[in-house]
Amino acid sequence: MRPTVGDVFGGLRRMTRTRRQLAWAVVYAVLAFGPAGLMMFSTPSGMSAFTAAADALGLLGLGVLGLQLLLPARWGPLTSSFGTDRLVRLHRSLAGAGTLFVLLHVVLLMADDPTRLRLLEFWSAPARARLAVLATLALVALSATSLFRTRLRLSYEGWRRVHLVLGLVLVVGGAAHALLVGHYLAAGLLRELTIGLLALSLAGVLFLRVGRPLFFNRGFIVDAVTDEPGGVLTVQLRADGHAGVPFAPGQFAWLKDAGQPLGLVEHPFSFASSAHRADRPTFTVRPVGDFTGTTLRGLLGRRVLLDGPHGGWHPKHPERGIVLLVAGIGITPAMSVLRTLDDERRSPPVTLVYASRDPESVVFAAELEGLAERLPLRVVHLPGRDEHQRRRLDASLLRDVLGPGGRRRDVLICGSPAFTTSALIATEQFGVPGHYVHAEALGFA
Amino acid sequence: MHVHETRVAIAATLAGLVLATGIGAVAAPTAPPPPAAPVTASQLVDAPVSGLGLNQAIDAADGG
């Protein structure tokens, strides 16, 4: 029996996801804040208030930054609860909290006893202080390379290598520093918890960089790489010795050359094909960098590893109708939705609002015309450059296109970060409840 | 944009700062107890001290 629309989009209901998210939030709080909380009950004698608070901040920083290695590890139970893109956003946001804790840790220690400034004399300082300096420098470099990657002209692959190495120096160096200093961690439960947290963080990195490519990712053959109208490429894969990887429209996967399973060269792409053809997934990409411009073409006929599916859109009431607000190459998840509905031979009303630079850059124009004849699909093009025809995506446009009944439809947004922001504002002002809206900003990884 | 994740980070930051402040407060040394009043010989005599140690105790209390 063929799955229905609801089946294809996944069975996770909102309450289930919310409860799982809550449970994970508690686990995170216990791991990140629990060790520092235990410090309440084990203050070493003769310690000043400032030093005790500084030690707590240091342990908090270590906890938060150590868990940073786990958040983007694409671990199934976590990604199915939050979505990989949201975990990456949390990874970015929480980095600020961890950095602040570490910086306050250093400042408070120096302010409490300025003679500690001598510990910054690297070559004469004890090992525990050297490790602290190394870890802090790694943290500063991590922040700088992440915030100013483009200005520093770091390639995406280069940045990933730097990010991984600096992250490991930070967490391992920070943990070794804390254990050598002693104080609260001289012995007992707190010491064991800190070692356990370090082991957990390193396990996250090992799982992502070694375990997933060697044992979990499935192999596919690149059957075709086709130039499409609109200046994009479609990569057609074929499952290599298996039945394919089931996915839902709106999900994405990382592609990597199977010849270099432990390399860091991989990119995330949205599935563009029907979810009913899991053995032959396609990805349509706009060539903008080394990987999408040249590497993908070179993979023709070769084996690639597919890490996914990740992310996901979980519509609440797809039977009421679906609204797809996309821009540029953000059309790919929308195509996956439409092709899936086309395969099912039944569909709720679908409205596609598709913003593009000009008519020449519209991707899948001919196929969309065909889909509009077979499905209850309305396509609204928003040409970007023509000032006379130009119309912005805002609440009034949604009101005109969807009518008042459109406020209770599931909305999928996909495009550049600027487009995604505009679309979110438009849906909010139009009156669509937030839980009906799912947004994917391109380039999140 | 991504208000939810920003809120999570702000909440984590505030929770950490409150926790660290609490740990600092717990570790803060309390005011030293007031010095005990000098013990007089008569107090020691009245105390239930017996045996050969009594004279030594009286000498100690009197500064001897």
Description:
The complex is a heterodimer of chains A (445) and B (64). Chain A is of the alpha/beta class and 445 residues long. Helix content of chain A is 48%, strand content 16%. Chain A has helices at residues 5-8, 14-38, 49-67, 76-82, 84-112, 127-147, 156-181, 189-216, 290-298, 331-344, 365-374, 395-402, 417-430, and strands at residues 218-228, 232-239, 252-257, 266-270, 282-285, 303-310, 322-327, 350-356, 377-383, 410-415, 437-441. In chain A, the strands form 2 sheets. A 6-stranded antiparallel beta sheet of chain A has the order 4-3-6-1-2-5. A 5-stranded parallel beta sheet of chain A has the order 9-8-7-10-11, with helices on both faces. In chain A, α2 (14-38) crosses α8, α3 runs antiparallel to α7 and α3 runs parallel beside α8. Chain B is 62% helix and 0% strand. Chain B has helices at 3-27, 41-46, 53-61. The longest helix of chain B is centred in the first third of the chain and has 25 residues, at 3-27. The chains are: A alpha/beta (445), B mainly alpha (64). The A-B interface holds A 29, 32-33, 36-37, 39-40, 43, 47-57, 60, 64, 86, 89-90, 92-94, 96-97, 100-101, 104, 417, 420-421, 424, 441 and B 1-2, 5-6, 8-9, 12-13, 15-16, 19-29.
In short:
The complex is a heterodimer of chains A (445) and B (64). With 445 residues, chain A is an alpha/beta fold.
Task: Label this structure with key terms.
heterodimer; A: 445 residues; alpha/beta; six-stranded antiparallel β-sheet; five-stranded parallel β-sheet; 13 helices; 11 strands; 48% helix; B: 64 residues; mainly alpha; 3 helices; 62% helix; 0% strand
What's the helix and strand layout?
The complex is a heterodimer of chains A (445) and B (64).
Chain A: H1 5-8, H2 14-38, H3 49-67, H4 76-82, H5 84-112, H6 127-147, H7 156-181, H8 189-216, E1 218-228, E2 232-239, E3 252-257, E4 266-270, E5 282-285, H9 290-298, E6 303-310, E7 322-327, H10 331-344, E8 350-356, H11 365-374, E9 377-383, H12 395-402, E10 410-415, H13 417-430, E11 437-441
Parallel strand pairs in A: 7-8, 7-10, 8-9, 10-11
Antiparallel strand pairs in A: 1-2, 1-6, 2-5, 3-4, 3-6
Chain B: H1 3-27, H2 41-46, H3 53-61
